[in-house]
Amino acid sequence: MKRSVRSLSTCAALVLSLGSTIATAGPPTTITLMQFSDLHGKMVPHQEIFQGDRAQNYSGGLTKMATAIGQVRADDPDALLLMVGDTTHGSAETLFTMGESVMAGLNSLDIDAFTPGNWDFGHGPRAFRNRFAGGIPGSGGIPLPLPPNNRTTLTGFPGKSCPGLPGTGPGTGQFTCNVTAATFDTVAINLYNYNEGLKKIGPRVLPPFKMLETNGVKVAVIGITTDVVPQQAATFNIGFRFTMGHNELPGIVADARAAGADVVVVQSELGLSKNLQMVKEIPGVDVMFSGHTHERTHEALIVKHKGNQTIVTEAGEDTHLGRLELTIQDGAVKGFDWELIELDDSMPEDPAMVALVDPARANFLDGTCHTFGPGGFGYGQGHTLCDSIETVVGSTDVTLERRDVLEDISNNFMVDAFVEAGRQADPNLNADNSLSTTNGFRYDNVVLGNGTVIGNGPATASGDISIADLYAYYPIGAALALASYSGGRLFDHYEGILSHVFDPNPYRQRGGWNLGFTENMHFDIDLVDLPLSISYPGRITNMTINGAKFDRSKTFTVVSCYPHGNPVDEACRTSGAFNFRFMTGTQDGDGVVTGPYSWAYPVNDEDILDPLRAPVVLQAAPNNFVHPVNILREYLATNVPNGTTIGAVGRVNAIHGNPVSDCDPTLVQPVQGAGPSWLARDDGEGACQDNGE
Fold first, then answer.
1. Which of 241, 245, 413, 635 is found 20 to 30 A from 166 (Cα to Cα)?
2. Same-domain pairing of 340 and 391
3. Among 301, 318, 348, where does a domain finish?
4. Residue 240's CB: how many other CB atoms inside 10 A?
5. Residue 641: pLDDT band by 50, 70, 90 thresholds?
6. Bridge partners, 322 (sequence order)
7. What is the number of domains present in the chain?
8. Which three-class secondary structure string do you get for 535-556?
């Protein structure tokens, strides 16, 4: 049912921010916008849990997304499809093809405007520019040559070949194996070119907005990409500079209105908290399509600002499609209807998309060996996979998913596996002097625990864990490292993570949720009363290792990830390491690394990333470095059959319980943070949930 202003509560009433007029006043006009967010390389259906804890066995993926989009277009052929968020990263298929596997499917969807997420930069800046930004700046579409290892990676992809040699120049075959360019337009106001030699910021990489028209209404779609790439692998950031977009947005909104926009839509990868705060402070935005935080807003959130209001929504990930209908009359939005469509087991797959997806996945199912060039750069031999990604490598009685901001079983399972392998590699490590952490990533494949009832039954899940599932949890080109830290450095880092995840000022909230910690670690944290004052800024009230109080003066070895190209004083975004070593294994004839595990010092430990020399990045990890998925497979094979309970929770104890969002308690991360209200940024008139009252 369409909602009129008169039928809405004061909280949910909606009027256009700047009182713009449509060219022809008179009867109401309805337009349809679709929101497609955070695909993360998911091509085929997988297990999922929907609202109300409804477990499903065959949901989401590009093949079902195409069906849902087609259904909306059948209702409204002029509906606009807007996509925001991490798209070309997040699966085995995208990891080993630099995102190439999803491009044929994406290009077939007739996307009207796209804004990239932080992980779309994860295959390196050259792949990003060639895919989304027209290749060499100002060249009219000439691609940047990819490093040799990445050309080798793409050789294994159907339809790609790489006869050219490095430095042979255009026209000689050098570019024949490049990534496929997007056929849809990409927009962002806050991504700039950067000259590494001159240390000078240049013009924008992408257009700031795109003007679209549907049913006689002009819609300006403004893009805001992520601002967190600089905190990720250093190789992602070469030649780019990012802002939050806060300073740019008012001027771009004015430009869009001056160009004739009746409706202004911002699609932003900053995350829900920042996006809500931004439209509280900046007028003129009618709709904010939020991405990055994987939240599912089953009801739209309404932000008031000086008498104006903005609709804010987030459409989860590949298992949901958002549909927003706007009713516009006499220069104002008079009503709206928001629906979050679930791509569950009942949604059929689209045959045309299946015909594109199946060939792109075929050589991931037949035993073909795949090797990636880490971080989009060609050094070392990378990480190799030769098994079908549908191979079952373990099972679980508990459900694995990432839907908790403080602690989840999946992260615990992974770090337990990592630290056990680290202790095998170095016999001097034990439960008192070693630990592991993993970043608070949001992407995953839900793995339903053995016996979970599917839908309304009687079918139940098997608990099987496949290779594809493991790569969905760790689809980055990282090496496992052994890095030593002082206890004080680790404690301060963990404190800083909590501070950023729950900061009452949304602009200071970081990407991702809390870290995963090993079973020998325990935290008591206070997210409500602390920090009480500047003299005690912390949230951790107690931290123990094996039940003993954590000693800041002691040295600990952390078994964690190393993003290739970073300095070797940093593991898993934690700087200040010393005695840095890589876990190594035995390489077979195909280049696959297995145990028993040992360790080796870096191949190079200085000037690994020199932006002036890019894309030549010095190799730090040896060729036989160990990838996290290697460890997870062995851990499942050796531990779970022996009765090990994977990833038991209870390592992080929130004294007052988990905080929830004031406006929508179903959100994973409280958008207003947690802590004393006097720490918060002014929230104006606030945001509330539209319940159609």
1. 241
2. no
3. 348
4. 19
5. low
6. 35, 340
7. 2
8. CECCCEEEEEECCEECCCCCEE
ω into 116 cis (within 30 of 0):
no
pLDDT in tens, 177-231: 889 999 999 999 999 999 988 899 999 999 999 999 999 999 999 999 999 988 8
Q: Which two tokens stand for residue 396?
A: 């679980």
pLDDT of 363-422, one tens digit each?
999 999 998 877 667 666 789 999 999 999 999 999 999 999 999 999 999 999 999 999
Provide the domain limits for residue 475: 387-520+558-649
Cα angle for residues 199, 129, 152 (degrees, 5° grid): 115
Question: Distance between CA 477 and CA 375 in Å, rounded?
Answer: 6
Residue among 632, 629, 624 nearest 592 (CA):
624
| Residue 569 and residue 450 in one domain | yes
Out of 207-211, 456-460, 536-540, 561-565, the most confident range is 207-211
Q: Tell me: the pLDDT tens digits for 576-619?
A: 999 999 999 999 989 899 989 999 999 999 988 887 777 678 88
* Residue at a domain's end among 348, 378, 400: 348
97-106: average pLDDT: 95
DSSP 416: H
Residues 327, 428, single domain; the answer is no
What mean pLDDT value characterizes the chain?
88
Sequence-separated (6 or more) residues with CB below 8 Å from residue 458: none
Alpha-carbon gap, residue 274 to 31, rounded angstroms: 27
577 in a structural domain: yes
The answer to whether 418 and 560 are in contact (CB under 8 A) is yes
Considering the domain boundaries, does residue 39 fall inside one? yes
Instruction: State pTM to two decimals.
Output: 0.93
Q: Which residue has the higher pLDDT, 21 or 45?
A: 45
Contact 348, 67 (CB under 8 A): yes
Whether residue 499 sits in one domain with residue 588:
yes
The predicted structure's pLDDT at residue 643? 55
Q: Is residue 171 part of a domain?
A: no
Q: Are residue 398 and residue 489 in the same domain, yes or no?
A: yes
Structure token digits, residue 47:
């297990």
In whole angstroms, what is the distance from residue 335 CA to residue 30 CA? 9
pLDDT band, very low/low/confident/very high, at 30 (cuts 50, 70, 90): very high
Tokens of 228: 């967190």
CATH of residue 629: 3.90.780
* Distance of alpha carbon 96 from alpha carbon 384, whole angstroms: 9
Segment (H or E) for 114: strand 113-116
Is residue 68 situated within a structural domain?
yes
Q: Dihedrals φ, ψ of 89, to 5°?
A: -145, 145
Same domain membership, residue 454 and residue 327: no
pLDDT tens column, 273-282: 999 999 999 9
Residues 121, 128: contact at Cβ < 8 Å? yes
Strands 301-305 and 687-689: antiparallel
**Does residue 400 share a domain with residue 291?**
no
The whole-angstrom separation of Cα 288 and Cα 275 is 7
Q: Closest Cα to residue 480, out of 645, 632, 617?
A: 632
Which residues 6+ apart lie within 8 Å of 665 measured at CB? none
Q: Residue 178 in contact with residue 163, Cβ under 8 Å?
A: no
Q: Is residue 252 domain-shared with residue 395, that is, in the same domain?
A: no
Other C-beta atoms within 10 Å of 664: how many? 20
Q: Which two tokens mark 112?
A: 């009207």
